[in-house]
Amino acid sequence: QGQLVESGGGSVQPGGSLRLSCSVSRIILSSLISADMGWYRQSPGKQRELVASITSGSVTNYSDSVKGRFTISRDYAKKMVYLQMDSLKPEDTAVYFCNVTTRRGYEYWGQGTQVTVSS
Question: Which residues of the chain carry a pLDDT beneath 70?
Answer without folding.
Answer: none
